[in-house]
Amino acid sequence: MAYSMTDVSGMSGVSLSELSHYAELGLLSPAFRGLDEDMYYEKRELLKLQQILFCKEVGVPEKEISSMLKEEPLEMVRVMQQHRIRLLEEALRLHGLIQTLDRTVSFLQEEQTMEEHELYRGFAHDTGHTRLPEADQTQYSHNTLRESDLNTEKMELKSKEDFLDSQAQIDRIHLDLKQALELGLEPSSPDVQKIIGRHLEWIKGYYTPTAEIYRDLANLYVEHRDFRNMYDGYHPRLAEFLREGMIIKAAQDLS
Predict the structure, then answer these.
(1) DSSP element (H, E) containing 3
(2) Are residues 128 and 218 in the same domain?
């Protein structure tokens, strides 16, 4: 099916001038021009536009985007996996900032003490914030904040295989949740909560969430467009199902 330039602008939120700009740069040429001289796009071009938006979302300079747009399906999958990693990394960084914010509020309310250097944990310039490994790295070293003693501990993923195993774990969790959803199980059921427990342990591999932060992460999965699209790829109701299960787990195990 072909979509006009106006259609694509409406569904993607990209302005007509931006689409024209991408065409002029050779980043996104239309599939064809109609008799009305309008530009028309097909699924191949829509996927390429998505890639352009992902690249811009993670800060790739416009002049470098062209080299990242690949035609081969397998290469496109690899690039999308890289985008997913960066989005997860940013989500975890933001939750680290929330931890710093919460801790600062507690300090200002004289509920707990706070070391000066802890004021800056989680900011982009901070070398101590949690970072997910890149898919093409072979050695990883991370600092992750443990709330129980307010110390920073180093977490090391020693090989690419460790990282791939971590990604396989979260994929298995999503597939198990999808199966539970399709079987009609409730998020509060013991079987589902056991799966949610595996999800919580996977998150703890990167940082230790409070109950509030775990609930915030649950809402992020539903409300953030990119996370929502990812979960919709498993099941249209998986994001909500996971959120409800996470909120129950937060109340039971993190409060």
Answers:
(1) strand 3-4
(2) yes
